[in-house]
Amino acid sequence: MHNSDSIVIIPTYNEKENIEKIIRAVFGLNDPTKAPEGKAQCFHILIIDDGSPDGTAAIVKSLMAQPEFGDRLFLLERSGKLGLGTAYIAGFKWALERQYEYIFEMDADFSHDPNDLPRLYAACAPKSDANPEGGYDVAIGSRYVSGVNVVNWPIGRVLMSYFASKYVRLVTGFKVHDTTAGFKCYKRRVLQTIELDKIRFKGYGFQIEMKFTAYKIGFKIKEVPVIFVNRREGTSKMSGGIFGEAFFGVMRLRWDGWTRKYPRPVDA
């Protein structure tokens, strides 16, 4: 039995080209001969598949049947495309029920480098002499905290994403540079405190709303610089509607910031 305090949640829809590769890359971090600087970190993985017609879930099931993966790879299957936000919320609830302490969001397409997972973990792990940069409640894999670290995106998409984060900061006063980032680590108590059933948005708006809510509650947030690389295989799920939700939803978040009574943090 592989015990772990960490679960990486990966939502999927038609990711047959990437899914086995990303699973093996994350589990490769459990091997000190493959992990960055020889430092192994044990991660479990939860795949949440929204009825992919390309057989993504079948690939995951075949891996789960292998003894090396059976007790650390998990799958939730849903009936169709129900939205990124609802997928993550289902995953958060699953992880909380199973007592994971560190809960990650990550894409399946290698735009998020699995080798950065230990850096996000370290930011949320207890601060100590060996880990002086730790002690945060939320760690964000940030594309924009140290410039613009995006590779192989069309310039129009880079500008749209970059200025979307600028817009969120301007409207809300929220000081995070990469407000739409989808590569994150939450400590358990953050997700226990946030009223998950009250999160309204499903796409980029979901990513903004979760960060903003954690900030308004008073949790400590750390941006960890990462390099974001556009997918090499498979098809992007981005759409104008996702950006539209984020654009107009920010106004609602600003109003909530003035009027809503946020819950008190769950004790560590």
Q: How many helices?
A: 8
Binned, the helix content reads: 25-40%
Question: Which whole number gives the mean pLDDT?
Answer: 86
Q: How many strands, what sense, and barrel or not for the largest sheet? A: 7 strands, mixed
Order of helices and strands: EHEHEHEHEEHEHHEEH
Kindly describe this structure.
Strands 3-2-1-4-7-5-8 form a seven-stranded mixed β-sheet, sandwiched between helices. The protein has a two-stranded parallel sheet with strand order 6-9. It contains eight helices and nine strands. The chain has 268 residues and is α/β, with parallel strands linked by helices. The chain has helices at 19-28, 56-64, 84-97, 117-124, 155-172, 188-193, 204-217, 240-259, and strands spanning 6-12, 44-49, 73-77, 102-105, 138-142, 150-151, 184-187, 221-225, 228-229. It is globular. The two termini are 27 Å apart.
Question: In terms of topology, how is this protein built?
Answer:
Blueprint: E1 6-12, H1 19-28, E2 44-49, H2 56-64, E3 73-77, H3 84-97, E4 102-105, H4 117-124, E5 138-142, E6 150-151, H5 155-172, E7 184-187, H6 188-193, H7 204-217, E8 221-225, E9 228-229, H8 240-259
Parallel strand pairs: 1-2, 1-4, 2-3, 5-8, 6-9
Antiparallel strand pairs: 4-7, 5-7
Helix pairs in contact: 5-8, 7-8
